[in-house]
Specification:
It is built from eight helices and eight strands; from the N terminus they run βαβαβαβαββαβαβαα. The chain is globular and about 45 Å long. By secondary structure, the chain is of the alpha/beta class. It starts with a strand and ends with a helix. Strands 1-8-7-6-5-4-3-2 form an eight-stranded parallel β-sheet. Bound molecules: D-xylitol-5-phosphate and zinc ion (ZN). The site of zinc ion has 6 residues, from β2.
Length: 222
């Protein structure tokens, strides 16, 4: 099943609960939360306390995308706060296997995120351990950036590699996604669409979610 994960990065942070409830009632499958530390990426966002408040505002699983250095240090805090899915960046973790094992031992879904210039080969020795792979289609740090087209080739290669191994690991794509490119990304092999500005910077966010869900339904037909 293809999932829609609205990213709350582009919402008004004084009204986070409202945004999350709107996304849930409009049909979102996950809530994507961007955690930035001001070191790995040039921006600062939300910490475990905010995640714990968001947890109380929705029944949807929280998809926490850690854009932080030394992610292993933070994993237990976000687990405690109620993160259901936790992704860490391949470029930020010195001990990827240790960090992924920790997320899994804590009973959460574990994913690795790769930046646009990071080759997927970095996942070679850990692919089988993953619950999902997050392919960045912008350079992380900000919402509302332009989709990096070379990501498509990466998604196609990753899709055929995963299938070739007899695995069924969903690919999540994050950055510059809107109703204009969602269908073709699904055809490229994406199963989780993260969408930020196209939803929350729109005049009617619920309508954009409805449109994206229609696209997902159309592309899911056999
Ligand atoms: C970027 C974040 C994204 C961001 C996507 O660093 O990881 O999740 O919110 O937002 P849009 O859809 O606006 O590119
Ligand atoms: Zn993200």
């Amino acid at each position: 099943m293809i999932k829609l994960a609205p990213s709350i990065l582009s919402t008004d942070f004084s009204r986070l609960g409202e945004a999350v409830r709107l996304a849930e009632s409009a049909g979102a499958d996950l809530i994507h939360i961007d955690v930035m530390d001001g070191h790995f990426v040039p921006n600062l966002t939300l910490g475990p306390q905010a995640v714990s408040s968001i947890k109380k505002a929705t029944r949807l699983p929280l998809d926490v995308h850690l854009m932080v250095e030394d992610p292993g240090f933070f994993i237990p805090f976000f687990h405690e706060a109620g993160a259901d899915w936790i992704s860490i960046h391949a470029e930020a973790s010195t001990h990827l296997h240790r960090d992924i094992t920790l997320i899994k031992e804590l009973g959460r879904k574990a994913g690795i995120a790769v930046n646009p210039a990071t080759p997927i080969q970095v996942l070679h020795d850990i692919l089988k351990e993953l619950d999902y792979v997050l392919v960045m289609s912008v350079n992380p740090g900000f919402g509302g950036q332009k989709f990096v087209e070379s990501t498509r080739q990466k998604i196609r290669e990753l899709r055929s590699w995963i299938r070739g191994q007899g695995l069924s690991i969903p690919i999540e794509v994050d950055g510059g996604i809107s109703p204009a490119n969602a269908a073709t990304l699904i055809r490229d092999g994406v199963e989780i669409l993260v969408v930020g500005a196209a939803i929350f910077a729109a005049e009617d966010p619920a309508r954009v979610i409805t449109r994206l869900k229609e696209i997902i339904a159309e592309e899911s037909r056999p």
